[in-house]
Design a protein that fits this description.
Elements (H helix, E strand, L loop, with lengths): L1 H6 L9 E4 L14 H17 L4 E7 L2 H14 L4 E5 L13 H10 L4 E5 L4 H14 L4 E4 L5 E4 L2 E4 L3 H12 L5 E2 L7 H11 L14 E3 L4 E3 L13
Parallel strand pairs: 1-2, 2-3, 3-4, 4-5, 5-8
Antiparallel strand pairs: 6-7, 9-10
Keywords: Cobalt, Metal-binding, Methyltransferase, S-adenosyl-L-methionine, Transferase
Family: Belongs to the vitamin-B12 dependent methionine synthase family.
GO molecular function, one term: methionine synthase activity
Length: 237
């Protein structure tokens, strides 16, 4: 953290994030990690980050809605920093434990994060298929940090199929749809990021949008109620 803050000391438009990943365990009852223990662990990391001088918290590579909830609650209980969160979906738009893009986005917004999005697992081409669902499910600014395509094995080594120039073109197409923060994950190099910045830097930031839907989310599913008020229960005289 000290090294990152020093590197950004003379740049007022640069911010340093405390980066927090998943625990690596499934929460009870699907695994052996109690929810309260997960909340406490994430909270300690958030507290350390704030004490070290972080400007914000980035929770990334999350694949379980229950753990996402634990991470957000822990960070909010032990830190006053803004929280951004990115999640890892498969090509069908599902988290490891089955949650959908809409369910995850709706829950994150309800819990008060500053931005939400995608990272790891899939490349820009796959994110392009899932991005419309997230844009339609939340008013939050959207983050995209995909891999440099899907990994392939060549000569016994794992390689990524999308080079810097193609990555920049694909990210430009995604950014045009209203993305606020763009970066990269596995397989991306400094050249990928430089090429992307050169391509997208003139685009306007997506920022906040007005989501016209009312969405109720469970552990794995989101239900759209529409924009109008819903009357629940009987009239009491």
């Amino acid at each position: 953290m000290k090294i990152a803050k020093k590197a950004c000391a003379d740049k007022s438009d640069k911010f340093v994030a405390m980066d927090i990943g998943p625990s690596g365990k499934l929460l009870a009852p699907y695994g052996d990690l109690p929810f309260e223990d997960a909340v406490a662990a994430f909270g300690k990391m958030a507290q350390w980050g704030e004490e070290a001088g972080a400007d914000l918290i980035l929770i990334e590579t999350m694949s379980d809605i229950y753990e996402i909830k634990a991470a957000i609650l822990g960070c909010k209980e032990h830190s006053s920093l803004p929280i951004c969160i990115t999640m890892t979906f498969d090509e069908d738009g599902k988290l490891l434990t089955g949650g959908t893009v809409a369910a995850a986005a709706a829950m994150c917004e309800a819990l008060g994060v500053a931005a939400v999005g995608f990272n790891c697992g899939i490349g820009p081409k796959q994110v392009a298929k899932l991005l419309p669902e997230m844009l339609a499910s939340t008013s939050l600014p959207i983050i995209i940090n995909p891999n440099a395509g899907l990994p392939v094995e060549k000569d016994g080594k794992t390689c990524f199929e999308v080079g810097p120039e193609e990555y920049a073109e694909l990210m430009y197409e995604l950014a045009e749809q209203g993305v606020s923060i763009a970066g990269g994950c596995c397989g991306t190099t400094p050249e990928h990021i430089r090429s992307m910045i050169a391509k997208v830097k003139e685009l306007p930031c997506g920022g906040w949008r007005q989501c016209s839907k009312t969405i109720v989310a469970s552990y794995g599913k989101a239900v759209e109620l529409g924009a109008d008020p819903k009357i629940i229960g009987e009239r009491i005289n």
